[in-house]
Design brief:
96 residues; alpha+beta; two-stranded antiparallel ribbon; 36% helix
């Protein structure tokens, strides 16, 4: 029996929940982080799957870029109950 490798683990944290996401490269980290966010969000919330939303993020560095990317996905989820189900990263630099 073959199981999917686990891309994240959770742990207790003073900010509610800590999450450690793993990936082979930076593009994979952004992708896996988005998948992890989706996994944690849809546990008990009704959502409308949306796969044709295009977002563009700019930030001063990769750490903030990842933060802002996840914040944008979270905003779409909470404002419209939209869940981006198919994620494709077209371009990724240190700031875009």
């Amino acid at each position: 029996m073959h199981s999917e490798p686990k891309i994240y683990e959770t742990f207790d944290h003073t900010a509610d929940l800590g999450i450690k996401v793993t990936a082979k490269n930076i593009t994979g980290l952004f992708f896996n982080s988005a998948q992890t966010l989706n996994d944690l969000l849809v546990d008990d919330v009704p959502v409308v799957a949306k796969s044709d939303e295009q977002i563009e993020i700019n930030a001063p560095d990769q750490e903030m870029l990842l933060h802002d990317f996840l914040a944008e996905l979270l905003s779409l989820f909470w404002s419209d109950n939209q869940l981006i189900t198919k994620i494709k990263i077209l371009e990724l630099t240190n700031t875009h």
